[in-house]
Design brief:
31% of the residues lie in helices and 23% in strands. It is α/β, with parallel strands linked by helices. The protein folds into 2 domains: 64 residues, Beta Barrel (Ribosomal Protein L25, Chain P), CATH 2.40.240; 168 residues, 3-Layer(aba) Sandwich (Alpha/beta knot), CATH 3.40.1280. Strands 5, 6, 7, 8, 9, 10, 11 and 12 form an 8-stranded parallel β-sheet that branches.
Length: 243
């Protein structure tokens, strides 16, 4: 089953945009009267009948709606520092979407090599990944913020907040625990996880994070690239709830 995406179908929109329309009509050869399936990016999937088979703006009638399509039983917010090679971050965003993530915030840390992030391309990647993996919801991709700005953001009560860190935490006066132990101790279904840049988080950033209630965690003995570490964290949450 092919999926199409419309960001305004839930608000009454009844046409596909030009890119989706072209794919529907010229690539997949749909025509008037065909039934297609459209996701709204919020969790809904719509069974629709094509009324106007224009490759510039497919018009359709909604026949049936299903909520929570391809959903997962938790909320996950990943805050990840984009590496110097932005393709690696986009790979992470694609694969995290296929597994299950709700929000992605790019971070600029004290040791970040990359200081620019353009989210439009990443948004297109997660939309495509959501369709490919049959999910009705598309992850939110934020504008990049500094680590300090991110740590000032409020989180819902009960959110388990983990910051992945390679270094020793003795200077913080708190114990670093494994991601497995952290997941076993987390009693709720809301998570926020931070992954730092190539040079990791600075000591000042770690102090602020711990002051804000973030638990330092380890992803194991292997030295992981940013995108590998981030996807490992996504998988840890997924496996706790899906295994």
């Amino acid at each position: 089953m092919e999926l199409f995406y419309s960001r305004d179908i839930a608000d009454g929109g009844r046409t596909l945009d030009q890119e989706e329309s072209n794919h529907c009509i010229r690539v997949l050869r749909h025509s008037a009267g065909d039934v297609i399936h459209v996701v709204d990016g919020r969790g809904g999937i719509y069974e629709c009948r094509i009324d106007n088979a224009s490759p510039k703006a497919v018009g359709f009638t909604v026949l049936k709606v299903e909520e929570g399509y391809g959903s997962h039983p938790y909320r996950l917010h990943m805050a990840v520092a984009p590496p110097k090679n932005i393709d690696r971050f986009e790979w992470f965003a694609e694969k995290a979407t296929e597994i299950a993530v709700d929000r992605i915030t790019p971070l600029f840390g004290d040791y970040s090599e990359r200081k620019v992030f353009k989210k439009e391309r990443c948004e297109r990647i997660v939309i495509a990944a959501a369709k490919q993996s049959h999910k009705g919801a598309v992850p939110q991709v934020d504008d990049a913020v500094s680590v300090r700005e991110f740590l000032q953001q409020p989180f819902e009560d009960g959110t388990a907040k983990f910051i992945c860190y390679c270094g020793d935490t003795e200077f913080l006066g708190v114990e670093k625990i494994s991601i497995r132990e952290a997941m076993s101790k987390a009693g709720g279904d809301r998570y926020a996880i931070m992954i730092g840049p190539e040079g990791d988080f600075s000591r000042d950033e770690m102090r602020l994070a711990v002051d804000k209630g973030w638990q330092p965690v380890s992803l194991g003995a292997s030295r992981l690239r940013i995108e590998t570490a981030a996807l490992t964290a996504v998988a840890a949450v997924y496996l706790k709830h899906m295994a």
